[in-house]
TrEMBL record:
Keyword ATP-binding: no
Single annotated GO MF: DNA-binding transcription factor activity
Coiled coil (UniProt feature): 132-159
Domain HTH arsR-type per the UniProt entry, residue ranges: 7-90
Organism: Nitrosotalea sinensis
Record-given protein name: Putative transcriptional regulatory protein arsR family
Pfam families: HTH_20 (PF12840)
Signal peptide from the UniProt entry: none
Record keywords: Coiled coil, DNA-binding, Transcription, Transcription regulation
Coiled coil among keywords: yes
């Protein structure tokens, strides 16, 4: 997963490659079309396009040309994923999701929400514009709710870190912060998660055991040390 995310940042960190992706987002294009649209030379274009193809962002396909000319190679977007980056005073996260919804499920969902699209181009475009606006509004409302939840999450993490700094030493805090988000099933697994020596982690867990009187966290600590 980490290598995949690093690859995405490497690709998207280059403005020319982003421009190529934007250019292809409306419709597939052949090489010279893209080169002309974003205004770069063919040699540079070839280098960037190859990087996009090699990493799976773009794929090629051929279409027959008129008058018996050789098939023309087209480029189109290929990847389908969501990448979300969150940064706050108490947390930095990168969430990556490349799950694709099966086409039959998309059809069921769309049939529930939308009526049949007209065969007339003008009517169809008007209806599609209306539906796109509705979907964009739904996404915006969901994003507002997500932002509200993240704000509450930030307050909770701030409290966790305050308790950690006021009551525990560095390794103990590291363990607590990890156990707030993960569910390690053994000392070995926890040690790998926080990149610390297993025996030092075990000693720190015993220290946490002695500092906690009762409650869920004490139970979790006890389960790891017994």
């Amino acid at each position: 997963m980490k290598n995949k995310i690093d690859s995405i940042f490497h690709i998207l960190g280059n403005k020319t490659r982003r421009d190529i992706l934007f250019a292809l987002s409306d419709e597939p294009m052949y090489f010279n079309q893209v080169s002309k649209k974003i205004g770069i030379g063919q040699q540079a274009m070839l280098r960037h396009m190859q990087a996009l193809v090699d990493t799976g962002f773009v794929r090629t396909y051929g279409e027959k040309s008129d008058f018996g000319a050789p098939d023309r190679k087209y480029y189109r977007l290929e990847s389908s994923f969501n990448l979300s980056i969150s940064l706050s005073e108490d947390e930095f996260t990168i969430d990556y999701n490349e799950e694709k919804i099966p086409s039959d499920k998309i059809e069921i969902l769309s049939n529930k929400k939308f009526k049949q699209i007209s065969d007339d181009p003008s009517n169809a475009l008007g209806t599609l514009r209306k539906y796109l606006t509705e979907i964009d509004n739904d996404i915006q409302n969901l994003q507002s709710e997500i932002n509200n939840l993240k704000a509450i999450r930030q307050m909770l993490l701030q409290k966790v870190h305050q308790i950690g700094q006021d009551n525990f030493i560095h390794l103990e805090r590291k363990i607590i912060y990890k156990m707030m988000k993960e569910n390690p099933t053994s000392v070995t697994e926890l040690s790998h998660m926080i990149s610390e020596n297993k025996f030092e982690v075990l000693n720190a867990l015993r220290g946490l055991h002695d500092k906690m009187d009762k409650g869920t966290m004490k139970t979790l600590v006890d389960e790891l040390t017994t």
